[in-house]
Amino acid sequence: MKMKNGFLSKLRSVFAGALATMVVAGAAHAQETSRLDELLSRGKLIVGVSSESPPFGFVDEKGELVGFDIDIAKLIAKATFGDETKVEFVRQSAAQRWPNAQNGTIDFGAQTTSIYADRAQKVAFTRSYIDGGVVMIVRKDAPFQKLADFNKSDVTIANLTTPTQEERAKRLFPSAQIATFDGIAAQFNAVKLGRAQGAQLDGPVAAWYVKQNPDMRVIEERLTDVVNTGIFMKPGDFRLWQYLDLTVSEMTGGYLFADYSKIYEKWFGTKPLNVKWYLNQPQK
């Protein structure tokens, strides 16, 4: 009986060792077949973007796809291949972001996407490459100085057709009137032309509109906290995630910062802060 038990014990040990080897080999194989290898072999990036979200991604008067996210993708292509043209853009709606990342239609997405815990259950995110968060934009000559000033029955707030903006407006401005629009441009124009007194816009979007329209301004008090905006991709590919995360790190505080800074200033009219906070301090 002892001999039999000893044999079974050795058999279990052999089986456990073989299983561990298979797990390690499987993990190694998964790493070897990273999407990073595929895109390097292909010689170009395939990037999901918006074509309806100025200034991040939109079609200009020449019919060309332009925007901050478009230039960010080109910068990643330049860092990867030494050529910013080595990128193919897939225009996708907000709803298509997660399926296209998960099924491999795109290598990754750069689509002004805020990082939230529920979204991180669907895709993998890099660290933030630009701050987000919602602000209120008004005409420069408007009397409003703080958010409480909008909670009046003779004030109209311009919203997008999103449940989030509707809930926020009803919660913060229960006495105000609500006007709903299908697009950001229509939302902005409602304020500019006086049909509404304020509009909820993402911070960088509002900055871009103010840059184009000196007769507009942003209320200093924010509607939401500052949120992070990340590049997203299919989860589970550590090598691709690490590569893109490191590239974002270099854009926001490393050797790519000069190029990133030019892109940022081009679209928002101000210079970005380096994530290495001490580099932002005035020189003595």
UniProtKB/TrEMBL annotation:
<protein>
    <submittedName>
        <fullName>Murein transglycosylase</fullName>
    </submittedName>
</protein>
<dbReference type="InterPro" id="IPR051455">
    <property type="entry name" value="Bact_solute-bind_prot3"/>
</dbReference>
<dbReference type="GO" id="GO:0006865">
    <property type="term" value="P:amino acid transport"/>
</dbReference>
<keyword id="KW-0732">Signal</keyword>
<dbReference type="GO" id="GO:0030288">
    <property type="term" value="C:outer membrane-bounded periplasmic space"/>
</dbReference>
<dbReference type="Pfam" id="PF00497">
    <property type="entry name" value="SBP_bac_3"/>
</dbReference>
<keyword id="KW-0813">Transport</keyword>
<comment type="similarity">
    <text>Belongs to the bacterial solute-binding protein 3 family.</text>
</comment>
<feature type="signal peptide">
    <location>
        <begin position="1"/>
        <end position="30"/>
    </location>
</feature>
<dbReference type="GO" id="GO:0005576">
    <property type="term" value="C:extracellular region"/>
</dbReference>
<dbReference type="InterPro" id="IPR001638">
    <property type="entry name" value="Solute-binding_3/MltF_N"/>
</dbReference>
<feature type="domain" description="Solute-binding protein family 3/N-terminal">
    <location>
        <begin position="44"/>
        <end position="271"/>
    </location>
</feature>
